[in-house]
Amino acid sequence: MAAGRTVSAKSLTEFDRGWLGIAERLSKNLENLILEENKRKKFHSEWSKISLTRDAGRGVGGGKLQRDALCTRGRHDKAPFSNRNLRWHPLIIADNTPDWAIEVQGIEVRADKIYFIIDNKDYSAEEVYKLESGQPLSSYLGETLMRTNKPYCAPLTLWRNHVDTLREWNDAEWTKNSCAISAMEFSPAEYCIEIFALLAIAVLYNFYGVDYSIAVETVLKVFSANDYNPTCQFYDALKSIDDILRCPLCKAKLNEPPAGITPRVRPPAFQRPWQPSKRAEGEPESIQLFHIEPLTETEIRHTPKSTRYGHRWCNVAMADRSLEETLDFMEAVVRVHRGSVASISNKNSSVQT
Ligand SMILES: [Zn+2]
User: Fold this and answer.
1) 8 Å CB contact between 82 and 89
2) Is position 3 within any domain?
3) From the CA of 242, how far away is ligand 1's center (Å)?
4) How close is the Cα of 345 to the center of ligand 1, in Å?
């Protein structure tokens, strides 16, 4: 499996730099809304720090906002997936090429390198971050402001000829070629920067006591100072601000326990003392990225409409289902249990009498 760092992790195009620059300015201006210095430093190091890389830096280089809003998740596969990359990276892999991408002409594997053929030219893993299709995404998304172009896609059919070779590849060979992202995680830079701002507002409000209307105003000022006009989805999300500030499933505030249930105190479990965990991300009440509509390869779902922060417990309970499906599931579970509990207690009471 590709165990190392994403290929070209430190390489950025002018386009990438422009968006990461806006993220940096958002971070700086939002940090300044926290008056207490220690809290401001904590927000910076945990949430708003920006690493000028494709993968948010090694380990904990960038803050959680960059990793969640702007980057794909970290992964180690026997596949050319990046171990974190920018979500607007121009090369995706999918079962079928989606409408919003352009299929590469072919794939070649020579020695220990994969090459993607586009316009009769070969592009190695190190070169793909520079790809530029020149075809805007705007028509697909129905948004007129999109500057991001359609990515290129290497679908399953093009990999079939190379199965015998790739089956033999070791970790080092995969790491050298970890240069693409999954179609599921792709999102235009415009949506990513807006999600970055929305998630930041939720964190500032819930954990740092910042008035959300002042945070919204700050975000809009930074966008305007950078000549950025937000999308319709961003303004729609602001209209229902309460949905952004609370967990999408249990509707509790993010600084409150899931569904308001006091978490039990768990006895300590073994932690490697030579590699202490920097964040308590495994706790039920810790905060995780939520996609209200589960990610799919056919549609772009990392959008301001569908992306929120929520409790880990709630996110795990959703198990990659939509909010509606989860509610139906929970309702059915409760009905079964309440029903059986009622029938048992009825039996007991009939025995006693
Ligand atoms: Zn919740």
Assistant:
1) yes
2) no
3) 14
4) 31
Task: Give the Å distance between the CA of 62 and the centre of ligand 1.
Answer: 25
Written as one letter, the residue type at 167 is R
Number of domains in the chain: 3
Could you report the average pLDDT of every consecutive run of 10 residues in the chain (353 residues)?
Answer: 81 97 98 97 96 86 95 88 95 97 97 95 96 89 85 97 94 93 97 98 97 98 96 95 95 93 81 68 81 94 96 92 92 88 53 41
CA atoms within 13 A on the CB side of 318: 22
Judge whether 274 lies within some domain.
no
Tokens of 151: 């990515």
Q: Looking at the domain assignment, is residue 71 inside a domain?
A: yes
User: What residue numbers bound the domain in which 215 lies?
Assistant: 190-262+282-318
Question: Both 46 and 181 in a single domain?
Answer: yes
Strand, helix or coil for residue 114: strand
Q: 217 C-alpha to center of ligand 1: Å? A: 27
pTM: 0.91
